[in-house]
Amino acid sequence: MGRTGFTRRALLGTAGAGLLAGAGAGVAVAYARTGGVDEPAGGALGSARVPFHGEHQAGILEPQQARVQLAAFDLVDGLGRDGLRSLFQRWSKAAERLTAGEPAEEFDNQVALDAGPCSLTLTVGVGTPLFDKAGLADRRPAALDPLPAFPGDALDAARSDGDLFVQIGADDALVAVHALRVLQRLAAGAASLRWQSAGFARTPGATARPMTGRNLMGQIDGTNNPRPGEDGFAAKVFCAPGGDRPDWLAGGSYLVFRRIRMLLDHWEALPVDRQERVIGRRKADGAPLGAPAGAGEHTPVDLAAQGPDGALAIPADAHIRVAAPAANGGAAMLRRGFSYHDGPAADGSPDAGLLFLAFQADPRNGFTPVQRKLSRGDGLSRFLRHEASGLYAVLPGVPAGGYLGQQLVDG
Ligand SMILES: C=CC1=C(C)c2cc3[nH]c(cc4nc(cc5[nH]c(cc1n2)c(C)c5CCC(=O)O)C(CCC(=O)O)=C4C)c(C)c3C=C
Ligand SMILES: [Fe+2]
C-alpha cells in the first residue's frame, strides 16, 4: 500500500468503525489498537492514524505511543501577535498533513517518506512568558502562574519552561523526529529551539495482551489514572470557561512536565518487597498491597487494609497513599509519562528516569498540591530527583478549517 493509501477504514475495519460512532475519532483510533480489536497483519502499526482535528488536541487521551519527542521553543524578540498567528498556521498545516501520513508541504526532508503516520500526534502548549512577548498579557490565565519551588527540586533552567511546548508521539522514532524537525524549520525566524528530550514507552504488541506499561523502576505505572467515560473525567482534565478561567482555553488543558531522574543504582539495591512498600503495590502484577488473593492491577485500593501484624498494608509514606486524590482534596490529573535513558551521567550512574507529563483542568488543584505533599512525605522521593520542569496551557483542539491557537490570537 502506498504511503498516501493508508485509510482509516483499512485500519479500523468494522469493529473500529463502530467505535468511531461513540467517541472522539482520535480516541477511537488509538483505543482500537489496545482494545483487543483484531489488527490486519503487517503495516497496521504504520497505518494507524489519529486525526489532527477535534474538540481537544490529540496526544492527551490516546494511549502513549512507543516514542515521544518533547521540545520547547522561545519566540524571537518582537514577534508579536501576527507573527505568532502565522507560526500557528504553519504548524497546523504541517501537523494536519503529517498526522495523515503526508509529507509536509515545506521543509520536508523526506526522512519519514516510507512510513505511515504511526499514530503520530502533535500537542502544542504555551508557557507563561509567551503572553508578554506576543502582546497577549491580558489573556494570560491565572492558573499559568509559575509553579512554586518544591523541597528537593534540582531544576536546570536550560531544560525547563519555554514559550511554546510540543509533545510529539508516534509508534516510530523516525516519524516523531521527522515531525519535530519540520516544526523546527517552519519556526525559523519566529521561534528557536530551547530544549528537546526523547522518551519511550512500550511498543504496541510487545506484550501478549494489552496492559498498562512499566517504568524504568519496573513498576506498572498509570493504573489509577482517571479514565475517559468515567464520571467527572472531563472536569478533571479539560478547561471550561468561568471564574478566572479564560474563554479562549475552553477544551484545552494544563500540562505539567517534570524531568524526573531515577536513582536506579539505589533503587535496584532495594529488595523487591521493600520496593513494593515504597509504592504500595505489588511489582509483578500491580495489585494494591493488602488486597485479597486473586487481586490484580485494577482491584480497588483499600488504604485502611491491615497486614497480619495489624500495621497498615500500604505504609503511611507509600507513594499511592500520599498521591491519592483522597489525601489531596480530590486533586486529580491524567498522567501520560514516558521513560528516558540518555546513557551514563558524569558519575557513571544512569541518566535515566521519567518524563512525567500530567494533563489537568487546573494545576492549582491538580499537580501543585499533590507534589507539595509528595515532596515532604513520599517514600519514593528518596529515589528521585526533579531535574527540569514546565507548565503550559495546552491549546484547545482545532476544528476543520481552523488552526492551533486561533481562539488565543484572534478571539
Ligand atoms: C505530583 C504528581 C506525581 C508525581 C511527580 C509522580 C511521580 C512518579 N510516580 C511514579 C510511579 C507511580 N505512581 C503511581 C501512582 C500515582 N502517582 C501520582 C502522582 C505523581 N507521581 C498519582 C496521583 C498516582 C495515583 C494514586 C492513586 O490514586 O492510586 C504508581 C501506581 C500505579 C498507578 O496508579 O499509576 C506508580 C508505580 C514514579 C516512578 C514517579 C517519578 C519518577
Ligand atoms: Fe506517581
From TrEMBL:
Its main location: other. Residues 213-398 form the Dyp-type peroxidase C-terminal domain. Keywords: Heme, Iron, Lyase, Metal-binding, Oxidoreductase, Peroxidase, Signal. Binds 1 heme b (iron(II)-protoporphyrin IX) group non-covalently per subunit. InterPro entries: Dimeric_a/b-barrel, Dyp_perox_C, Dyp_perox_N, Dyp_peroxidase, EfeB/EfeN, TAT_signal. GO terms for biological process: iron import into cell. It is found in: Cell envelope. GO terms for cellular component: cell envelope; cytosol. Pfam families: Dyp_perox_C, Dyp_perox_N. Its EC number is 1.11.1.-. It catalyses: heme b + 2 H(+) = protoporphyrin IX + Fe(2+). Residues 57-200 form the Dyp-type peroxidase N-terminal domain. One of its GO terms (molecular function) is ferrochelatase activity. The keyword Repeat does not apply. Its cofactor is heme b. Belongs to the DyP-type peroxidase family. Involved in the recovery of exogenous heme iron. Extracts iron from heme while preserving the protoporphyrin ring intact. PANTHER family: DEFERROCHELATASE, DEFERROCHELATASE/PEROXIDASE. This is Deferrochelatase.
